[in-house]
Amino acid sequence: MSNNTAIIDISQTANKFRSSIVLQAENKYIDVKSILGLFTTLVGGLSYELHVHGPDADEAKVAMAEVFEKHNLDIKVVAE
Length: 80
What we know:
This protein is α+β, with helices and mostly antiparallel strands. It has a single domain (3-78), classed as Histidine-containing Protein, Chain: A (2-Layer Sandwich), CATH 3.30.1340. It contains 3 helices and 4 strands; from the N terminus they run αββαβαβ. It has helices at 3-14, 35-41, 57-70, and strands at 20-25, 28-31, 48-53, 75-78. α1 (3-14) runs antiparallel to α3. Pfam families: PTS-HPr.
């Protein structure tokens, strides 16, 4: 599966939610709703942390964990 497919899938999933969804990759923080931000950050081999805040955070965490897993990306959803 190409990285582009993963990026579009992740961004589209994130945009279904009102919550703020931020990906932390090493010392960078990226808004997951930004396809451009994901393109510059989502490279294989890194492990990522996902920070989710907002009214639908619980649903967003589940959906985001599923979409990252679907594309074999190592993600840890951080409980705030």
